[in-house]
Fold:
Amino acid sequence: MYRKRNTAINHVKEHATVYVFMIILFLTGIIFGAILVNSMNFVQKQDLFFYLERFFLQIQEGNPIEKNKVFKSSILYHTKYLFLLMILGISVIGLPIVWILIFLKGLVVGFSVGFLVNQVGLKGFLLASLSIAPQNLLTIPIYIIAGSFAMIFSLTLLNKLFTRRVSRPIIQPLIQYITVFSLMLGLSIIAATLEAYVASYAMESLITTYFQ
Structure:
């Protein structure tokens, strides 16, 4: 176990630049998401808030969130997103799209939190903390790690294509690559569970209590 931990630490140190780049890319997406909220005009905000109010009303009228449906939908979403990142990393030419996808993940988080706070104030911040934060505490590292591995693998393939020196076969890095993405998928199931059965329940409780 100590050896595995040491290997992980060495990996992060060796590819620290890639991880920092992905974190900055994600944070930039969050900032752009918040800016996007402030750039919306009054009519656009009201139109979007109308759907949010309808959702609140459904909860208040005793129509609970279908948690099993949320769970299945969340797992399907994570599976497709991670699979896409994995394929783009292998393709090499898909690396810029990996960057866009990580940026968009940040943008969605920034926009969601920003819009709730902008429209509902402190209640919106509490709602974001209970409904968005729990699963994202896990999904954010998952996607940053997945995006970083996709970038590392792409750069490894590029290095093999453009260098003439003898290097180790690609099969071992490929197996490690697939293993990491399988692990990220397993962690995403935990994130989906948090979203469906923890965040959803907390959101229902907050809406029925404070959004009367």
About this structure: The two ends are 52 Å apart (CA to CA).
